Amino acid sequence: MPEGLATTHEGSHSALQHHFENMEQQREAGTLGMWVFLVTEIMFFGALFLAYTIYRYQYPAAFASASNHLDIRLGAINTAVLIVSSFTMAMAVYSTQVGKQRNTIICLILTMILGATFLGIKAVEYRDKYRDNLIPGQLIPGHPFKPAVARPGDTDEHKLHLVEGATVHNVELFYWIYFAMTGLHALHMIIGIGIMLVLTVMAWRGRFGPAYHAPVEISGLYWHFVDIVWIFLFPLLYLLGRHLEGHLG
Amino acid sequence: MSEHIVQPRVYITIFLALMLGTALTVMAAFRDFPGPLNVIVALTIAVVKATLVILYFMHVRYSPRLIWLVIGSALFWLAIMFALTISDYWTRTWLPPL
Protein backbone atom coordinates (compact mmCIF):
# COMPACT_ATOMS: atom_id res chain seq x y z
CA MET A 1 0.00 0.00 0.00
CA PRO A 2 1.51 3.38 -1.01
CA GLU A 3 2.44 5.80 1.74
CA GLY A 4 -0.38 8.17 2.72
CA LEU A 5 -3.11 6.30 0.90
CA ALA A 6 -4.48 4.12 3.65
CA THR A 7 -8.01 4.16 2.30
CA THR A 8 -8.18 0.63 0.96
CA HIS A 9 -7.51 -2.56 2.86
CA GLU A 10 -6.64 -5.19 0.32
CA GLY A 11 -7.49 -8.64 1.57
CA SER A 12 -8.82 -7.47 4.94
CA HIS A 13 -12.22 -8.17 6.54
CA SER A 14 -15.16 -6.69 4.61
CA ALA A 15 -16.51 -5.04 7.80
CA LEU A 16 -13.33 -2.97 8.27
CA GLN A 17 -14.07 0.75 7.82
CA HIS A 18 -11.53 2.76 5.85
CA HIS A 19 -10.62 5.04 8.76
CA PHE A 20 -9.31 2.19 10.90
CA GLU A 21 -5.95 0.45 10.56
CA ASN A 22 -7.24 -3.00 11.40
CA MET A 23 -10.14 -4.91 12.97
CA GLU A 24 -8.57 -4.81 16.42
CA GLN A 25 -8.35 -1.02 16.41
CA GLN A 26 -11.90 -0.76 15.07
CA ARG A 27 -13.24 -3.06 17.79
CA GLU A 28 -11.49 -1.19 20.60
CA ALA A 29 -12.73 2.17 19.29
CA GLY A 30 -16.28 0.79 19.21
CA THR A 31 -16.01 -0.51 22.77
CA LEU A 32 -14.68 2.85 23.99
CA GLY A 33 -17.50 4.67 22.20
CA MET A 34 -20.09 2.43 23.84
CA TRP A 35 -18.58 3.07 27.26
CA VAL A 36 -18.67 6.82 26.72
CA PHE A 37 -22.38 6.47 25.90
CA LEU A 38 -22.87 4.37 29.03
CA VAL A 39 -21.21 7.16 31.06
CA THR A 40 -23.99 9.51 29.96
CA GLU A 41 -26.48 6.81 30.95
CA ILE A 42 -24.85 6.47 34.38
CA MET A 43 -25.24 10.22 34.95
CA PHE A 44 -28.81 10.12 33.61
CA PHE A 45 -29.98 7.31 35.89
CA GLY A 46 -27.70 8.68 38.63
CA ALA A 47 -29.75 11.86 38.83
CA LEU A 48 -32.90 9.78 39.34
CA PHE A 49 -31.22 7.71 42.05
CA LEU A 50 -30.20 10.99 43.68
CA ALA A 51 -33.80 12.24 43.60
CA TYR A 52 -34.86 8.97 45.23
CA THR A 53 -32.19 9.38 47.94
CA ILE A 54 -33.18 12.97 48.79
CA TYR A 55 -36.91 12.30 49.02
CA ARG A 56 -36.45 9.07 50.90
CA TYR A 57 -34.39 11.01 53.43
CA GLN A 58 -37.10 13.66 53.70
CA TYR A 59 -40.19 11.43 53.77
CA PRO A 60 -39.08 8.06 55.22
CA ALA A 61 -42.54 7.08 56.49
CA ALA A 62 -44.26 7.73 53.16
CA PHE A 63 -41.53 5.83 51.29
CA ALA A 64 -41.92 2.87 53.66
CA SER A 65 -45.70 2.83 53.20
CA ALA A 66 -45.44 3.06 49.40
CA SER A 67 -42.58 0.56 49.08
CA ASN A 68 -44.46 -2.01 51.17
CA HIS A 69 -47.25 -1.94 48.61
CA LEU A 70 -44.90 -3.24 45.88
CA ASP A 71 -44.80 -6.98 45.21
CA ILE A 72 -41.40 -8.29 46.40
CA ARG A 73 -42.10 -11.69 44.82
CA LEU A 74 -42.58 -10.25 41.33
CA GLY A 75 -39.60 -7.92 41.80
CA ALA A 76 -37.35 -10.81 42.84
CA ILE A 77 -38.51 -13.00 39.93
CA ASN A 78 -37.77 -10.14 37.54
CA THR A 79 -34.30 -9.69 39.03
CA ALA A 80 -33.60 -13.38 38.39
CA VAL A 81 -35.01 -13.13 34.84
CA LEU A 82 -32.68 -10.23 34.05
CA ILE A 83 -29.63 -11.99 35.49
CA VAL A 84 -30.36 -15.08 33.36
CA SER A 85 -30.75 -12.78 30.32
CA SER A 86 -27.36 -11.18 31.08
CA PHE A 87 -25.89 -14.69 31.20
CA THR A 88 -27.40 -15.66 27.83
CA MET A 89 -26.14 -12.35 26.41
CA ALA A 90 -22.63 -13.10 27.67
CA MET A 91 -22.89 -16.54 26.08
CA ALA A 92 -24.00 -14.95 22.80
CA VAL A 93 -20.79 -12.88 22.83
CA TYR A 94 -18.73 -16.00 23.57
CA SER A 95 -20.46 -17.95 20.79
CA THR A 96 -19.61 -15.29 18.19
CA GLN A 97 -16.02 -15.06 19.44
CA VAL A 98 -15.51 -18.79 18.85
CA GLY A 99 -17.54 -18.74 15.63
CA LYS A 100 -20.55 -20.85 16.66
CA GLN A 101 -23.23 -19.13 14.62
CA ARG A 102 -26.11 -21.41 15.65
CA ASN A 103 -25.40 -20.93 19.35
CA THR A 104 -25.19 -17.16 18.84
CA ILE A 105 -28.66 -17.08 17.34
CA ILE A 106 -30.08 -19.33 20.09
CA CYS A 107 -28.54 -17.17 22.83
CA LEU A 108 -29.78 -13.93 21.25
CA ILE A 109 -33.33 -15.31 20.92
CA LEU A 110 -33.24 -16.53 24.54
CA THR A 111 -32.09 -13.07 25.64
CA MET A 112 -35.01 -11.48 23.78
CA ILE A 113 -37.51 -13.95 25.29
CA LEU A 114 -36.19 -13.23 28.80
CA GLY A 115 -36.33 -9.49 28.15
CA ALA A 116 -39.94 -9.82 27.01
CA THR A 117 -40.71 -11.93 30.11
CA PHE A 118 -39.34 -9.12 32.29
CA LEU A 119 -41.55 -6.58 30.51
CA GLY A 120 -44.57 -8.90 30.84
CA ILE A 121 -44.11 -9.20 34.60
CA LYS A 122 -43.57 -5.44 34.80
CA ALA A 123 -46.87 -4.94 32.95
CA VAL A 124 -48.64 -7.14 35.52
CA GLU A 125 -47.22 -4.94 38.29
CA TYR A 126 -48.28 -1.75 36.50
CA ARG A 127 -51.79 -3.18 36.06
CA ASP A 128 -51.97 -3.91 39.80
CA LYS A 129 -50.98 -0.30 40.53
CA TYR A 130 -53.65 0.89 38.10
CA ARG A 131 -56.26 -1.26 39.85
CA ASP A 132 -55.28 0.17 43.24
CA ASN A 133 -55.43 3.76 41.86
CA LEU A 134 -51.72 4.30 42.44
CA ILE A 135 -50.83 5.88 39.08
CA PRO A 136 -49.53 9.32 40.14
CA GLY A 137 -51.00 12.64 39.06
CA GLN A 138 -53.00 12.61 35.85
CA LEU A 139 -50.66 10.27 33.95
CA ILE A 140 -53.78 8.40 32.91
CA PRO A 141 -56.49 11.00 32.28
CA GLY A 142 -59.61 10.38 34.36
CA HIS A 143 -57.75 7.94 36.62
CA PRO A 144 -56.13 10.10 39.30
CA PHE A 145 -53.96 9.00 42.18
CA LYS A 146 -56.57 8.03 44.75
CA PRO A 147 -55.65 4.90 46.73
CA ALA A 148 -57.99 3.51 49.36
CA VAL A 149 -56.27 4.02 52.71
CA ALA A 150 -56.52 1.09 55.12
CA ARG A 151 -57.79 1.73 58.64
CA PRO A 152 -55.89 0.16 61.57
CA GLY A 153 -56.58 -3.58 61.64
CA ASP A 154 -57.61 -3.70 57.98
CA THR A 155 -55.51 -6.34 56.18
CA ASP A 156 -56.76 -5.71 52.64
CA GLU A 157 -53.59 -5.83 50.51
CA HIS A 158 -55.07 -3.61 47.82
CA LYS A 159 -55.42 -0.74 50.26
CA LEU A 160 -52.58 1.59 51.15
CA HIS A 161 -51.25 0.93 54.64
CA LEU A 162 -49.81 4.18 55.89
CA VAL A 163 -46.98 4.08 58.42
CA GLU A 164 -47.36 6.67 61.19
CA GLY A 165 -46.31 10.09 59.89
CA ALA A 166 -46.89 9.27 56.21
CA THR A 167 -49.23 11.27 54.01
CA VAL A 168 -50.94 10.09 50.81
CA HIS A 169 -49.43 13.08 49.04
CA ASN A 170 -45.87 11.97 49.79
CA VAL A 171 -46.74 8.38 48.84
CA GLU A 172 -47.69 9.85 45.47
CA LEU A 173 -44.16 11.32 45.27
CA PHE A 174 -42.73 7.82 45.71
CA TYR A 175 -44.90 6.57 42.88
CA TRP A 176 -43.72 9.39 40.60
CA ILE A 177 -40.15 8.24 41.22
CA TYR A 178 -41.15 4.57 40.92
CA PHE A 179 -42.84 5.04 37.54
CA ALA A 180 -40.13 7.39 36.21
CA MET A 181 -37.32 4.98 37.09
CA THR A 182 -38.97 1.66 36.21
CA GLY A 183 -40.57 3.24 33.13
CA LEU A 184 -37.25 4.53 31.80
CA HIS A 185 -35.68 1.18 32.64
CA ALA A 186 -38.45 -0.60 30.72
CA LEU A 187 -37.90 1.75 27.77
CA HIS A 188 -34.23 0.75 27.76
CA MET A 189 -35.30 -2.91 27.77
CA ILE A 190 -37.58 -2.34 24.77
CA ILE A 191 -34.74 -0.65 22.86
CA GLY A 192 -32.44 -3.50 23.92
CA ILE A 193 -34.84 -6.11 22.53
CA GLY A 194 -34.94 -4.13 19.25
CA ILE A 195 -31.12 -4.22 19.10
CA MET A 196 -31.17 -8.00 19.76
CA LEU A 197 -33.60 -8.42 16.89
CA VAL A 198 -31.22 -6.64 14.50
CA LEU A 199 -28.29 -8.70 15.81
CA THR A 200 -30.23 -11.94 15.33
CA VAL A 201 -30.93 -11.06 11.68
CA MET A 202 -27.26 -10.12 11.16
CA ALA A 203 -26.12 -13.36 12.82
CA TRP A 204 -28.61 -15.30 10.69
CA ARG A 205 -27.01 -13.82 7.56
CA GLY A 206 -23.62 -14.97 8.80
CA ARG A 207 -22.21 -11.49 9.36
CA PHE A 208 -20.40 -12.36 12.59
CA GLY A 209 -17.46 -14.59 13.34
CA PRO A 210 -14.22 -14.72 15.32
CA ALA A 211 -12.82 -11.84 13.19
CA TYR A 212 -15.88 -9.60 13.48
CA HIS A 213 -18.20 -9.61 16.48
CA ALA A 214 -18.00 -6.03 17.76
CA PRO A 215 -21.75 -5.32 17.31
CA VAL A 216 -22.66 -8.30 19.53
CA GLU A 217 -20.10 -7.27 22.10
CA ILE A 218 -21.04 -3.60 22.44
CA SER A 219 -24.77 -4.42 22.40
CA GLY A 220 -23.95 -6.79 25.23
CA LEU A 221 -22.41 -3.88 27.16
CA TYR A 222 -25.68 -1.98 26.81
CA TRP A 223 -27.75 -4.98 27.90
CA HIS A 224 -25.58 -5.61 30.97
CA PHE A 225 -25.79 -1.92 31.90
CA VAL A 226 -29.59 -2.10 31.89
CA ASP A 227 -29.28 -5.18 34.12
CA ILE A 228 -27.07 -3.21 36.55
CA VAL A 229 -29.66 -0.42 36.81
CA TRP A 230 -32.22 -3.02 37.88
CA ILE A 231 -29.75 -4.57 40.36
CA PHE A 232 -29.94 -1.21 42.21
CA LEU A 233 -33.63 -0.49 41.57
CA PHE A 234 -34.82 -3.78 43.05
CA PRO A 235 -33.48 -3.35 46.62
CA LEU A 236 -34.08 0.42 46.71
CA LEU A 237 -37.69 0.37 45.53
CA TYR A 238 -38.93 -3.04 46.70
CA LEU A 239 -36.90 -4.14 49.70
CA LEU A 240 -35.74 -1.19 51.78
CA GLY A 241 -39.26 0.10 52.48
CA ARG A 242 -39.67 -2.64 55.01
CA HIS A 243 -37.12 -1.04 57.31
CA LEU A 244 -37.53 2.69 57.02
CA GLU A 245 -39.48 2.68 60.25
CA GLY A 246 -36.24 2.11 62.11
CA HIS A 247 -34.89 5.39 60.74
CA LEU A 248 -37.54 7.61 62.19
CA GLY A 249 -36.13 7.67 65.74
CA MET B 1 -3.47 -5.84 22.58
CA SER B 2 -5.17 -9.04 21.47
CA GLU B 3 -8.63 -9.93 22.57
CA HIS B 4 -9.29 -12.03 25.65
CA ILE B 5 -12.08 -14.58 25.26
CA VAL B 6 -13.85 -15.12 28.58
CA GLN B 7 -14.66 -18.82 28.98
CA PRO B 8 -18.22 -20.08 29.71
CA ARG B 9 -16.90 -21.53 32.99
CA VAL B 10 -16.28 -17.95 34.21
CA TYR B 11 -19.71 -16.77 33.02
CA ILE B 12 -21.43 -19.65 34.84
CA THR B 13 -19.56 -18.88 38.08
CA ILE B 14 -20.51 -15.18 37.89
CA PHE B 15 -24.10 -16.09 37.02
CA LEU B 16 -24.37 -18.33 40.10
CA ALA B 17 -22.79 -15.62 42.29
CA LEU B 18 -25.36 -13.08 41.02
CA MET B 19 -28.24 -15.46 41.77
CA LEU B 20 -26.82 -16.09 45.26
CA GLY B 21 -26.56 -12.33 45.81
CA THR B 22 -30.20 -11.88 44.79
CA ALA B 23 -31.30 -14.60 47.23
CA LEU B 24 -29.19 -13.07 50.01
CA THR B 25 -30.56 -9.55 49.51
CA VAL B 26 -34.17 -10.83 49.60
CA MET B 27 -33.48 -12.85 52.75
CA ALA B 28 -31.75 -9.88 54.39
CA ALA B 29 -34.78 -7.69 53.61
CA PHE B 30 -37.00 -9.90 55.80
CA ARG B 31 -34.72 -9.45 58.80
CA ASP B 32 -34.50 -6.39 60.98
CA PHE B 33 -30.95 -5.24 61.51
CA PRO B 34 -30.19 -2.44 63.97
CA GLY B 35 -29.99 1.15 62.75
CA PRO B 36 -29.23 1.78 59.08
CA LEU B 37 -27.66 -1.68 58.66
CA ASN B 38 -30.45 -2.91 56.36
CA VAL B 39 -29.62 -0.20 53.83
CA ILE B 40 -25.89 -0.87 54.11
CA VAL B 41 -26.35 -4.64 53.61
CA ALA B 42 -28.68 -4.17 50.61
CA LEU B 43 -26.44 -1.61 48.90
CA THR B 44 -23.27 -3.61 49.57
CA ILE B 45 -24.80 -6.67 47.90
CA ALA B 46 -25.98 -4.50 44.97
CA VAL B 47 -22.52 -2.95 44.54
CA VAL B 48 -20.84 -6.38 44.62
CA LYS B 49 -23.31 -7.71 42.02
CA ALA B 50 -22.81 -4.67 39.79
CA THR B 51 -19.02 -4.99 40.09
CA LEU B 52 -19.16 -8.66 39.04
CA VAL B 53 -21.29 -7.77 36.01
CA ILE B 54 -18.93 -4.93 35.01
CA LEU B 55 -15.70 -6.89 35.50
CA TYR B 56 -16.71 -10.19 33.90
CA PHE B 57 -19.91 -9.92 31.82
CA MET B 58 -18.73 -6.56 30.44
CA HIS B 59 -15.10 -7.78 30.15
CA VAL B 60 -13.70 -4.70 31.91
CA ARG B 61 -11.22 -6.84 33.82
CA TYR B 62 -9.62 -7.71 30.46
CA SER B 63 -10.09 -4.27 28.88
CA PRO B 64 -7.45 -1.60 28.22
CA ARG B 65 -6.65 1.02 30.86
CA LEU B 66 -8.54 3.61 28.79
CA ILE B 67 -11.85 1.85 29.57
CA TRP B 68 -10.99 1.83 33.28
CA LEU B 69 -10.31 5.55 33.07
CA VAL B 70 -13.67 6.25 31.41
CA ILE B 71 -15.61 4.23 34.01
CA GLY B 72 -13.59 5.70 36.87
CA SER B 73 -14.28 9.26 35.71
CA ALA B 74 -18.01 8.46 35.44
CA LEU B 75 -18.09 7.19 39.02
CA PHE B 76 -16.05 10.21 40.16
CA TRP B 77 -18.52 12.69 38.66
CA LEU B 78 -21.44 10.66 39.99
CA ALA B 79 -19.85 10.93 43.45
CA ILE B 80 -19.53 14.71 43.06
CA MET B 81 -23.22 15.00 42.17
CA PHE B 82 -24.28 12.90 45.16
CA ALA B 83 -21.85 14.42 47.67
CA LEU B 84 -22.64 18.07 46.93
CA THR B 85 -26.42 17.59 46.74
CA ILE B 86 -26.67 15.42 49.84
CA SER B 87 -24.41 17.72 51.87
CA ASP B 88 -26.85 20.54 51.05
CA TYR B 89 -30.04 18.71 52.09
CA TRP B 90 -28.38 17.06 55.07
CA THR B 91 -27.12 20.30 56.64
CA ARG B 92 -30.20 22.45 55.99
CA THR B 93 -31.67 21.60 59.37
CA TRP B 94 -28.48 22.43 61.25
CA LEU B 95 -29.20 26.13 61.35
CA PRO B 96 -32.39 27.64 62.77
CA PRO B 97 -34.60 29.27 60.13
CA LEU B 98 -33.98 33.00 59.73
Overall description:
The complex is a heterodimer of chains A (249) and B (98). Chain A is mostly helical. Chain A has a single domain (23-242), classed as Cytochrome c oxidase, subunit III, four-helix bundle (Four Helix Bundle (Hemerythrin (Met), subunit A)), CATH 1.20.120. Chain A is 66% helix and 0% strand. Chain A has six helices and no strands. Chain A has helices at residues 23-58, 60-67, 72-97, 101-131, 168-204, 214-239. In chain A, helix 1 packs parallel to helix 6 (214-239), helix 3 runs antiparallel to helix 6 (214-239) and helix 4 runs antiparallel to helix 5 (168-204). Chain A is elongated and about 75 Å long. Chain A starts with 22 loop residues before the first helix and ends in a 10-residue tail after the last helix. Helices cover 71% and strands 0% of the residues of chain B. Chain B is mainly α and 98 residues long. Chain B folds into two domains: 1-63; 64-98. In chain B, helix 1 runs antiparallel to helix 2. Chain B has helices at 8-29, 37-57, 65-91. Chain B is built from three helices and no strands. The chains are: A mainly alpha (249), B mainly alpha (98). At the A-B interface, helix 1, helix 3 and helix 6 of A face helix 1, helix 2 and helix 3 of B.
Topology (elements, then pairings):
The complex is a heterodimer of chains A (about 250) and B (about 100).
Chain A: H1 23-58, H2 60-67, H3 72-97, H4 101-131, H5 168-204, H6 214-239
Helix pairs in contact in A: 1-2, 1-5, 1-6, 2-5, 3-4, 3-6, 4-5, 5-6
Chain B: H1 8-29, H2 37-57, H3 65-91
